[in-house]
Amino acid sequence: MHRLRDVSVLALIVAVSIAALKPVHFEMLTAAWQESFWEVLPETAVAAVRVWAFWLVAGGVVGAVLLRLAPGIGLVDTLLAGLVGLWVLAYLAANLLGPLGLFRAWSIWGLLALGVLWLWRAGPPRPVWRRPTTGQALALLAFALVLPPLLLLQLGSPIPPHMDTFAPPASAQRIVTFGVYLPFDNDPFGYWDAASQCPGLEVFYALLALGSGTRLAVLAETAAMVPMAALLVLATYRLGRSLGGDLAGGMAALLLFVTVFFRSFPYGHGRFLAFALTSAGLALFLDRRVHPARLLLGALVLGTAVASHAVIGALAMTIAAAPVLLWLLAGQWRAAVAGVGLLAGATLVALPFVAIGLRLELPYPVLPAVQALGVGLALAGARAMPARVEAEGTVARPIVWALALIVLAVLVAHPNALGSLHDMWVRARYPTLYVGGALGLLCMLWQGAEGRAQVTPIAAGLGVGMLAEWLAGSMWTTFEDPNVGVAVEGFVRKADFWHPYLLVFPAGCLLAELYRAVPRRATLFAVLAVLCFPWRQYADPNYFEHSVVEGWAYHLQLAKGGYWGGTGSRRWAQGEAEFALIDILRDEIAAGRITPATHVVHVTPYVYLYKDAVHFALYTGINDDLYVADYTFDRATAGGRFYQLAKLPAALEARPPYVVVHDVTIDERKLADTLPELPAVLDEYEVLFQRDGLRLLRHPDHASGS
Fold this sequence. Notes:
Blueprint: H1 2-19, H2 23-30, H3 35-69, H4 74-97, H5 105-122, H6 134-155, H7 167-178, H8 199-212, H9 217-223, H10 225-244, H11 246-254, H12 261-264, H13 270-286, H14 292-308, H15 310-329, H16 333-357, H17 366-384, H18 397-413, H19 419-426, H20 431-449, H21 456-475, H22 482-517, H23 520-532, H24 548-561, H25 576-590, E1 599-604, H26 616-620, E2 623-628, E3 642-644, H27 648-653, E4 658-662, E5 686-691, E6 694-698
Parallel strand pairs: 1-2, 1-4, 2-3
Antiparallel strand pairs: 4-6, 5-6
Helix pairs in contact: 1-23, 2-24, 3-4, 3-5, 3-8, 3-9, 4-8, 4-10, 4-14, 4-17, 5-8, 6-10, 6-11, 6-24, 7-8, 8-9, 8-14, 10-11, 10-13, 10-22, 11-22, 13-14, 13-15, 14-15, 14-16, 14-17, 15-16, 15-21, 16-17, 18-20, 18-21, 19-22, 20-22, 21-22, 22-23
């Protein structure tokens, strides 16, 4: 009876919230479905079944092995280990097997078969099933609220519905196409510097495609939207539980709705997805119930997070380092040494990305050897950690209080000092989260005094984020090398995601205290009303807090109509001519004339990524070298293969094997307006394809073979 009443109240809240939507949002909910949705549905549905089944089976094997080795970790951590452990294994295996051409579907399934065989011989684990806790029920509610529109968005999006997120799936496609992973040569998209790569994410997308038998890595990526959202909710709950208990974890999961993560997660880039890894790694690393398996997995996940997005992962590593520093100050030497070992191990696991970002090419097998050393150090640290450690003991507590109060002072008194905080409060981008987070930090201080909350990680995370943003904002323009400047500025731009995400945890602790202090149902329904009702209705959900029902409207709008309106297909971002050209390139790969070493010179008008650009790298993994009309220097692309047309003659003097010429775009941008006459050397080339303002040329010397 209580359940029926609760569901009725929730339905009433949702109905009133929908009725209060502005006409523009209501039209998004009620608009007709475009025919293009039904056209892509067979492919997206099959990809979803394949990817979900593979992740379920493979993650189940990984989780079962861990539970068999460490039966005390519990079912929640087993589930988390299965979801993120597969990601970690992809990163380690790709660096070990990829350069040898052994990172293939058969090797992936072979490793899983070995895991099943070991479980059969050792005996299956015996999990202890328990009824979901209140916090877990709240996390399930959060996932249930986001699932329906997100599933429809996934089924309507064969590629990510965002303009600048193609580099990771293109890199994954390179692995799928050529059957080899070359860490220092795995950026076919070519737009950005090597430091902007996300190798930890790229190899995971490749694993999902290879393991599930999905030909396109980008389709495997979008097929993982729903499981990725489930991972984000679970990891957020789990970190909240480590910081403030079960209730705080559940409330933190619900508060994801007042961030932009459910909006941005479907874009599939590391700057969003790395938060799932960092939350999972920190949750396991910071759990007060010390267990070697948790600590080891937490360290490996944090290392993989750095490789999936450098800035987000590095900031998370500073949170993990905070309690280690306090152990040193408190004289808990054994715990401090073990913590240093764990962090050193995580750093070595992440080291391949550092080498890639610095363009420091190291011969095989240096990278996997360094990672193996990192795993060994993390294992030694996990085993050396004492059974009980006190992160905020008598010596450290004044330091924690001082840091937390400084953070509070900046939040309350000086938000103008930092761009992201100024926007959160002064521009009212996240008012609910900002107020709840500031009050929640005070609540955590009070709870910390009673041993119910860990305030150190949140205070350290916010403090380091503020300091990094301030320093980066002051310094990035001083670097002569634009690649370095862009990398440093990344801390400023990523603070826009970092601070809102961290604030869900103190806000969750505050709501947990309210839940205990006043009638529970009243608290929960009040929270749901705040989350669901469209109080403010801003136009841009990528940057402003928005309600649950507004989020549904935005997801359904993209699901129904597609994102890529300025291209040849609202769903695929490529028209018939582009796909015909891509098919010819695939034939050239099959004939052995295109290899991982091949670079295609791509001459194009200046078009934005959400317009009619040719994305053959995304669908084939072939290196794309862009020579762009009307292009002026842009520091964002300074380190990529993105050149002005003035450099084209020199590039053609080397007689590249293939040239793609985009003469005319859909919106009538013409290459001839900037380059009336192409270099005469192109007369030597044979025309493999010409249609709708698009040409593919091949040099005769390359026609006979590779």
